[in-house]
Amino acid sequence: MITNKNCIIRLSRYKNALYRLQALGFVKVFSDNLADAVGGTASQVRKDFSIFGISGNKKGGYQIDSLLEKLNSILGKDQLQKVIVVGAGHIGSALMRYRGFEKEGIKIIAGFDIDPAKINRSNPIPVLPLEEIKAFIKTNNIRIAILAVPDIAAQQAADMICAAGVKGILNFAPLGLKGAEGCIINNVNVEIELENLIYFVNVTEKTRKA
Amino acid sequence: MITNKNCIIRLSRYKNALYRLQALGFVKVFSDNLADAVGGTASQVRKDFSIFGISGNKKGGYQIDSLLEKLNSILGKDQLQKVIVVGAGHIGSALMRYRGFEKEGIKIIAGFDIDPAKINRSNPIPVLPLEEIKAFIKTNNIRIAILAVPDIAAQQAADMICAAGVKGILNFAPLGLKGAEGCIINNVNVEIELENLIYFVNVTEKTRKA
DNA sequence: TTGTTATTGTGAAAAACGGAACAATATGAT
DNA sequence: ATCATATTGTTCCGTTTTTCACAATAACAA
């Protein structure tokens, strides 16, 4: 089994680049085109494909449409992914309003919040009270949730939705969560990303001076 | 020089965990406490520290306050970091309203947008027209920018702020950017993170069945 | 003091990863 | 038909990263 997270991220990037190339009218692509497009090496592109049994044509490159089909299948994009957002604060609402997911086959079908003032059942994407989340997850067979609650509430919320059957959580709380058994947690942490950036900016500046 | 991004991310996580432990009244910590707190191994904690010349006490662990001082210094948190946000749409505004940065010594001092309707000079964090960004960056010596513009505008915006002197960009556009010489780009891509999560959820589910 | 124990710090081993190289081969030219 | 060329698929190799293992040693107990 592939455990290399970076490899899967590269597949997503290839996929996105392929859509752009397709929109420009290209029909086939070579490994070094893709490498340029995502900032890698041609070897690595070919190796990534080979890991998943994707093959092209000697001297002919890869057919973009069939390549996209295979990548989409690997990435689980051959079925609509229903996702919920837990926490309807600034970040949660921004994510619910974001229109970029739909074209990726990801549909946010509801938000949840503990604050009664945030409840809104008539929205295109309704915001429901937290008490209903367990039933909702079961009824709609939700497997993926985005967690955008304050850090103090994050672990409890994570435990709750894991127990209700969620299998993957994208966590925006600035806090590492203990994943319940059988539930994968990916963290998106803007503070940490910024700290990282600051570190490397500082280091390269120092190095440049020396 | 350390080039290992994951290692620096771990330092941030250690730092965050240490603050939590400190708030709970702890004064010292052992490598395996930290490993538990961030989800790693005790060896790795010690090795990460050893890379940066951080040492503890045999049988006594590490003093939390002095450890925090050292980590904060490595992560550039001994001075306030002024940051601008480019793009005042949903994500840009959510980031500007987010209060979590201040306690990390990161201060968003202005936003910029091309849409005149979004301009607001009297806000605590003013939103200024894009034409002023170059002068602003130079005047205020801005080194870090958060890019939250639509993908179509992202590369152009990145080029502009790099040329104006920005040294690091945190890019929220769902698109890999070509970094100008001397400018580091970190990407935060929620779609890709979700795809990644979906992939691993699917794979572990399949593996479990088999 | 002496012995026991817990924990660090690091050197060595193992694993994971990415990149270079090249044989295999399909395509197109002559 | 033959040759030259471009590109893939994969093996091999170097590097990076993680884990293991244990000597060194500080703290504590008897």
**CATH architecture classification of the largest domain in chain A:** 3-Layer(aba) Sandwich
The residue fraction in helices of chain A comes out at: 40-55%
Biggest beta sheet attributes of chain A = 6 strands, parallel
Strand tally of chain A: 8
- Fourth-tier CATH superfamily name of the largest domain in chain A: NAD(P)-binding Rossmann-like Domain
- Compute the CA-based radius of gyration of chain A: 20 Å
Unreliable segments of 5+ consecutive residues of chain A: none
Oligomer: homodimer
Give the strand line-up of the largest sheet of chain A: 5-4-3-6-7-8
Cα shape of chain A:
globular
Output the CATH topology of the largest domain in chain A.
Rossmann fold
Strand content of chain A: 15-25%
What is the rounded distance between the termini of chain A? 45 Å
What is the tally of helical segments of chain A? 8
Largest contact between chains: A-B, 62 and 62 residues
Question: Would you kindly provide a written description of the structure presented here, covering whatever features stand out?
Answer:
Two copies of one chain form a homodimer. The model of chain A has no long low-confidence stretch (mean pLDDT 95). With 210 residues, chain A is an alpha/beta fold. Chain A folds into two domains: 5-74, Arc Repressor Mutant, subunit A (Orthogonal Bundle); 81-192, NAD(P)-binding Rossmann-like Domain (Rossmann fold), CATH 3.40.50.720. The first copy, chain A, is globular. Chain A has helices at 5-23, 31-38, 42-51, 64-74, 90-97, 133-140, 151-164, 190-209; strands spanning 28-29, 62-63, 81-86, 106-113, 127-129, 144-147, 168-171, 184-187. Chain A starts with a helix and ends with a helix. The first copy, chain A, has eight helices and eight strands, in the order H-E-H-H-E-H-E-H-E-E-H-E-H-E-E-H. In chain A, the strands form two sheets. Chain A has a six-stranded parallel β-sheet, sandwiched between helices. In chain A, strands 1-2 form a two-stranded antiparallel sheet. Helix content of chain A is 47%, strand content 16%. Chains A and B meet through helix 1, helix 5, strand 7 and helix 8 of A and helix 1, helix 5, strand 7 and helix 8 of B.
